[in-house]
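Z., the sequence and structure:
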Amino acid sequence: MFFRVDEPKIEFLCRPRDEGVIPVPVPAKSYLPDWFRRLKPITEAAASPTSSGLTVKRCMPFLDAMTTGWILPLAATVRLEIADGGTTVNSGWDFDREMVSGHGAHQIRGHPKSHLPPCKFHNYWTIRTPPGWSCLFVDPLNRPNGVFEVISGVVDTDTYVSEIHFPFLATGADGLHVIERGSPLVQVIPFRREAASLEADIRAETEGECADRERILRSTCAAPGWYRDNARARRA
């Protein structure tokens, strides 16, 4: 008799009164920005002898970064008023709970952008992962919005089962910026902690490894789709 082993699953839980009110998390692959959807796979200009003319729409590493994990959307429309070169930030929203708060400036003292006051977006989804799994929270990859930048972090979501709020820096130009409800707030990338703690082997390559590297480099240069059709297709 064979028993089915359940696949690891990530859970997004909201308070009962929020169900159907706040936007739900979505797979990152279903939240591609409009500029990317409009982008042509190949440039209209004739490709030069040293360029295939392919755009990032045909670049699997670029696309894989965008489509990995989940997107947590903003629960409600937020207005950010940025002034004095970004050193003054005021916020407002139309929602019955807090959406933005201040963050201790001392916590980023020495950071290259420490002149900007750290703020915090409030999130109303609790994330649960199986034992041994954590989540990496990053600014949505390859989706710059020109208004704010979320500060990355890792949370052990198998033990910390409560709402996680996200520190950010307002990076937009002076003026009023409206961030619509449902806009991508943060990208959630679950990972098994054991896999993230691999030991390193640092050395010179062998002859066989050198041959592999040269073969792959030449194949990629000769056929821009080689990575997609070969290296990526062999994922376990």
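The chain is about 15% helix and 25% strand. The chain has two domains: 13-25+71-197, 202-236.

Let me know what you think.
H.
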